[in-house]
Specification:
The structure holds two protein chains of two kinds. By secondary structure, chain A is of the alpha+beta class. Chain A has two domains: about 200 residues, no CATH class; about 200 residues, no CATH class. Chain A is about 55% helix and about 20% strand. In chain A, helix 1 crosses helix 12 and helix 12 packs antiparallel against helix 14. The longest helix of chain A is centred in the first third of the chain and has 40 residues. Chain A is elongated, with a radius of gyration of 30 Å. By secondary structure, chain B is α/β, with parallel strands linked by helices. In chain B, strands 6-7-8-3-9-10 form a six-stranded mixed beta sheet. In chain B, strands 2-1-4-5 form a four-stranded antiparallel beta sheet, covered by helices on one side. In chain B, strand 4 and strand 5 form a beta hairpin. In chain B, helix 3 crosses helix 4, helix 4 crosses helix 5 and helix 5 runs parallel beside helix 6. Classes of the chains: A alpha+beta, B alpha/beta. The interface between A and B is medium-sized, with 21 and 27 residues. The structure holds adenosine-5'-triphosphate and magnesium ion. The site of magnesium ion (MG) has 3 residues of chain B, from helix 1.
């Protein structure tokens, strides 16, 4: 108790120094927690844009489907398969999908498109696709009409109620063509998907592509998308080698590598920031040791054990670290929550740069607990490292050397 | 018939100290034989560089002798390790240094209690004794002030109170009045003399100040690391 009192009072002996040190730690923590939470928020949003709207965090298909994404590797949708997938803990729902490529044509032009067919109701539950409708009306399972992404619509100069012709290849090489009205136009987050997507009801696609009860694959809806890797393994075990269960990092290795690389370069930046801060704080530790030389001499001369003195000085370091880290975490909550609740849309050059990466040009953030915990731990680790020198110094004090000025 | 000899609190034999740090050896003490009995009120005097501080530091277990022996508070302290010496000092010696004796972030009372806390004395004992001692040095109404809010003389009086708080065998004070004006000096000496008398506390202090020397009951003069005179009044 007296140790805490002494440490606390010692800290406020030189208010300015303690405030500056705390402020440095505060700034470092706010900066890196915010940046990391923003990074995470943007990744999650874009992973979501790409993964959720096109394939799901986990995708189950016939073995080999990922290698050869044609209808020839489609899988028969049986109740037994669905039950096996749903029996795995953490699986919330499943969404059978048909994916194909085709040519979408109007009277005047034609473009290549990605065709995706699902049960529109389940799709909406999974992806909130209904909210992406910017004009027209969301399709339902019994419709014989399509929804088309706004980028594609623009390229083909299409509007709601216009009619398009789809030219494609069905199961076993059959030619699959059809003429359908556009019921809705959708604005998708991923710029790439927004240029190419076309949605239709599952039943209609099964007929059009002569698939019978087959689907391309089954998207698996998870309770916690961060557990996709382990759940994929469990599903695989449940369904056997006839099928494959892949998580999004396997489905999109480039995206996951890009994110890891981006995170790694971000981490290097924050490491440098912390090293700079650590040197600054170390300077104040050295100043403190020099200023209190005589005092250390007196207290050890009158009989204070050196390890007890060391405990106080180390406590001082940790209290400063604690204050800086705590204030920093609280301080980071502000911008993180603001960006989480009100994502900022980018414009101009930034917008283009994001779109080039295939990212939605939006800055957002996620309350990234890992960043909060990690940065706090990092600050404590630095405090620990910065305590080594004073600790060694104090444990070796010979009072007579410290009493002479 | 057995005679209970009064055991000396301090007894040195042929104590010598040579500093070698600069390359040129400095013989700070040259064979000092000194016996100090309980209850004495002794001044160590001598010109600057004569070895007063060196002698007090060795007796106080703050420095090691180069040769000779120092038997202090019933223990042979020459050859003790620093970790043992810390404990020895805590329980046997009260220190008053020239200045800046106190822990700046603690109040007068807390400074006095602190040393008893290190000795693991009970809270009630700490509170009683610190109050009593602060009264004894005339600072009962300054108990809650921090060192920087007190004059140099008051700080030295707190240091004396702290020195006694640990119930030491004797108090060592190296030039305790060097930074004080004459009024504060005589005030501090009054207090020390009274505690010497009333509590039979042994005091050993060094000084340059003739008025302080006049108050001592024994004056030991050092020159070039040797005792050249030893007078009792
Ligand atoms: N750490 C040291 N290294 C080298 N020489 C030292 C050291 N400490 C003291 N001396 C020398 O030892 C001798 C005695 O010094 P000491 O400090 O004991 O004298 P003093 O009587 O206390 O002097 P003063 O009245 O100035 O305080 C001096 O010549 C001094 O220069
Ligand atoms: Mg001296």
């Amino acid at each position: 108790m007296i140790n805490l009192v002494l440490a606390w009072r010692n800290l406020w002996r030189n208010k300015r120094r303690t405030l500056i040190t705390t402020a440095m730690i505060f700034l470092a923590v706010v900066l890196s927690v915010t940046m990391q939470s923003v990074q995470r928020g943007i990744y999650d949003r874009n992973i979501d844009n790409i993964v959720r709207y096109s394939m799901g965090y986990i995708q189950v298909g016939a073995a080999g489907h990922h290698e050869d994404k044609t209808l020839e590797t489609s899988v028969e949708l049986t109740d037994e398969l669905i039950d096996k997938i749903k029996s795995v803990k953490g699986v919330a729902d499943v969404l059978p999908r048909i994916e194909n490529v085709g040519l979408v044509a109007t009277d005047t032009s034609s473009k290549e498109a990605l065709i995706q067919a699902t049960d529109p109701e389940v799709e909406d539950k999974l992806t909130g696709l209904r909210h992406r409708v910017i004009s027209g009306e969301y399709i339902n399972q019994s419709d014989r009409s399509v929804m088309i992404a706004s980028g594609l619509a623009k390229r083909l100069r299409l509007q709601v109620n216009d009619t398009i012709i789809i030219l494609s290849i069905g199961y076993h090489g059959t030619s699959a063509n059809g003429k359908y009205p556009v019921k809705a136009i959708l604005e998708l987050g991923s710029p790439e998907l927004n240029r190419r997507m076309i949605y239709m009801p599952l039943k209609m696609a099964q007929n059009m592509f002569y698939l019978g009860d087959n689907v391309s694959n089954i998207s698996v809806l998870l309770e916690d998308k961060r557990r996709s890797e382990e759940i994929a393994t469990e599903i695989q075990a449940a369904i056997g080698d006839e099928y494959e269960a892949l998580h999004w990092k396997q489905l999109l290795p480039e995206l996951s590598q890009m994110i890891e690389g981006d995170e790694a370069s971000g981490n290097i930046m924050f490491a440098i920031l912390y090293v700079i801060i650590a040197f600054g704080v170390f300077g104040t530790v050295l100043m403190m040791l020099a200023e209190r030389r005589r005092e250390f001499g007196v207290v050890t001369a009158i009989g204070m054990k050196r390890h007890k003195l060391a405990v106080i000085v180390v406590l001082e370091n940790f209290i400063t670290a604690f204050m800086g880290a705590l204030l920093g975490m609280v301080g980071a909550m502000g911008p993180v929550l603001a960006l989480k609740n009100n994502p900022v849309s980018l414009a101009g050059d930034m917008k283009e740069a994001y779109e080039k990466l295939g990212f939605e040009p939006v800055i957002t953030a996620d309350v990234y607990q890992f960043a909060f915990v990690n940065n706090a731990l990092l600050v404590f680790f630095i405090a620990l490292v910065l305590s080594i020198y004073p600790l060694v110094k104090i444990l070796r004090i010979k009072p007579i050397d410290y009493l002479r000025s | 018939m057995t005679q209970t000899a009064i055991r000396p609190v301090i007894e040195t034999r042929n104590l010598s100290k040579t500093y070698d740090s600069t390359g040129v050896p400095v013989h700070a003490l040259n064979g000092v034989d000194l016996v100090i009995e309980e209850g004495e009120f002794t001044a160590i005097v001598g010109p600057s560089g004569s070895g007063k501080t060196t002698l007090l530091n060795i007796i106080g277990g703050l420095d090691n002798a180069s040769s000779g022996s120092a038997h202090v508070a019933d223990q042979e302290i020459t050859g003790m390790k620093e970790s043992q010496l810390i404990d020895f000092r805590l329980h046997n010696i009260g220190f008053v240094f020239q200045a800046y004796n106190l822990i700046p972030v603690l109040t007068a009372k807390e400074n006095v209690e602190f040393i008893m806390l290190m000795q693991k004395r009970s809270k009630s004992e700490r509170e009683e004794r610190s109050s009593a001692l602060l009264s004894a040095v005339g600072l009962q109404d300054q108990a809650n002030k921090r060192p920087l809010q007190m004059s140099g003389g008051q700080q030295q009086r707190v240091a004396v109170a702290r020195a006694l708080a640990s119930r030491p065998r004797f108090v060592l004070a190296d030039e305790p009045t060097a930074n004080l004006d004459s009024h504060s000096t005589s005030n501090l000496l009054d207090i020390m003399a009274r505690l010497n008398k009333e509590e039979n506390m042994t005091f050993v202090f060094s000084t340059h100040d003739q008025r302080v020397i006049d108050r001592a009951r024994r004056v030991i003069t050092l020159e070039d690391g040797r005792i050249v005179s030893d007078e009792r009044k």
